[in-house]
């Protein structure tokens, strides 16, 4: 008996994947390194011509005195919160219940650093001023993730960020930015990176989300803070003898994709409108505020998945490779726009959405 293909199998075969930049394969690194001179010396344990000028450029871009390259955001952010906690003599830090540290890091912050998170807001919305002002216990640090990935990339209004920052400064609370997708959020806010980062004491950015590099992160802040973070980076085993594959690919893709962030943002809005015209489907947020959003359907996963598989096979458009259950019985998946979207044949895309709409409508009846 022939087994039906899975959603990820049909997605991988699709002629027109809708999301992302390109396949995550070795070509991504080959393309990035092709333009560099093979005689360029490697960085060595955090020093050298590949890493130091790059860190300086990142510090300048983020408007901070110094920046340090890390192999991962997971490492960089746990260290940032540890430093702020030690400085304040308090184990308490506050963040969103669905932030990366809380749900994707196997409790590293608690197990390795014995920090005690206080959860702000709820699982449907981002942290707002009232959540921060209303905290009952003193904390060393508040972490804000902009945009908040697990709720479709929602963002609080910019004016509230300014107020949160002023409140934290007044109370002596450090404010840390999880800016894994910082550049993706800037077109909506209409401000430059350094302006937004000036509201925060420490900032982390990622090079492999919207920028599409291999991996890697930068942690930026005051000089004393970044120097301390280097000690912790060594303790965590993150001070790799050579980080140049990550740094050079970060540099290469950053140059290409930073100027496209506004384009991805507008394309996300265009695509979300196609989804919102389909029966049983809504996007969160309804109008995207970055290059990403979530697609929610009232149909359960076991009903929507075979529909998606069939529509992908029949039209060649890869909508998603994974579908998840929602607590209310429906299902959802994440969409993030990259280079691929601009290349899609738009008339055929609209036809594919018409087919999706017909199938979900029939299934809902
Ligand atoms: C919002 C957010 N913060 C932090 C991280 C951690 O990044 P890394 O994979 O580099 O550890 C991620 C990764 O997906 C993320 O989405």
UniProtKB/TrEMBL annotation:
Coiled coil: none annotated. It holds the Pfam family Beta_elim_lyase. GO terms for biological process: glycine biosynthetic process; L-threonine catabolic process. The keyword Hydrolase does not apply. Residues 39-295 form the Aromatic amino acid beta-eliminating lyase/threonine aldolase domain. GO terms for molecular function: L-allo-threonine aldolase activity. It comes from the Bacteria. GO terms for cellular component: cytosol. Its cofactor is pyridoxal 5'-phosphate. Keywords: Lyase, Pyridoxal phosphate. Belongs to the threonine aldolase family. This is Aromatic amino acid beta-eliminating lyase/threonine aldolase. It comes from Paenibacillus curdlanolyticus YK9.
């Amino acid at each position: 008996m022939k087994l039906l293909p899975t959603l990820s199998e049909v997605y991988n075969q699709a002629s027109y994947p809708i999301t992302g930049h390109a396949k995550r394969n070795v070509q991504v690194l080959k393309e990035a390194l092709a333009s560099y001179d093979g005689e360029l010396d490697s960085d060595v344990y955090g020093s050298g011509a590949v890493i130091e000028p790059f860190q300086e450029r990142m510090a300048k871009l983020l408007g901070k005195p110094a920046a340090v390259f890390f192999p991962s955001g997971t490492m960089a952010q746990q260290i940032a919160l540890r430093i702020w906690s030690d400085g304040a003599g308090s184990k308490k830090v506050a963040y969103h219940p669905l932030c990366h540290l809380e749900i994707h890091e196997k409790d590293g912050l608690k197990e390795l650093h014995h920090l005690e998170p206080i959860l702000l807001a709820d699982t449907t919305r981002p942290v707002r001023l009232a959540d921060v002002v209303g905290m009952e216990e003193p904390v060393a640090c508040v972490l804000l993730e902009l945009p908040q990935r697990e709720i479709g990339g929602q963002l609080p209004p910019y004016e509230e960020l300014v107020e949160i920052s002023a409140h934290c400064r007044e109370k002596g609370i450090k404010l840390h930015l999880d800016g894994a997708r910082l550049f993706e959020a800037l077109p909506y806010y209409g401000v430059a990176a350094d302006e937004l980062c000036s509201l925060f004491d420490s900032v982390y950015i990622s090079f492999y989300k919207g920028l599409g590099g291999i991996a890697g992160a930068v942690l930026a802040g005051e000089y004393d803070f970044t120097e301390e973070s280097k000690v912790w980076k060594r303790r965590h085993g993150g001070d790799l003898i050579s980080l140049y594959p990550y740094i050079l690919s970060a540099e290469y893709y950053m140059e290409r994709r930073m100027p496209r962030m506004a384009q991805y943002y507008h394309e996300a809005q265009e695509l979300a409108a196609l989804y919102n015209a389909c029966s049983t489907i809504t996007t969160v947020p309804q109008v995207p505020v970055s290059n990403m959003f979530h697609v929610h359907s009232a149909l359960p996963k076991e009903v929507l998945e075979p529909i998606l598989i069939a529509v992908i096979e029949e039209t060649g458009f890869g909508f998603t490779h994974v579908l998840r259950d929602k607590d209310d019985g429906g299902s959802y998946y994440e969409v993030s726009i990259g280079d691929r979207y601009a290349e899609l044949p738009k008339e055929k895309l609209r036809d594919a959405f018409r087919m999706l709409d017909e199938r979900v409508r029939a299934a809902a009846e």
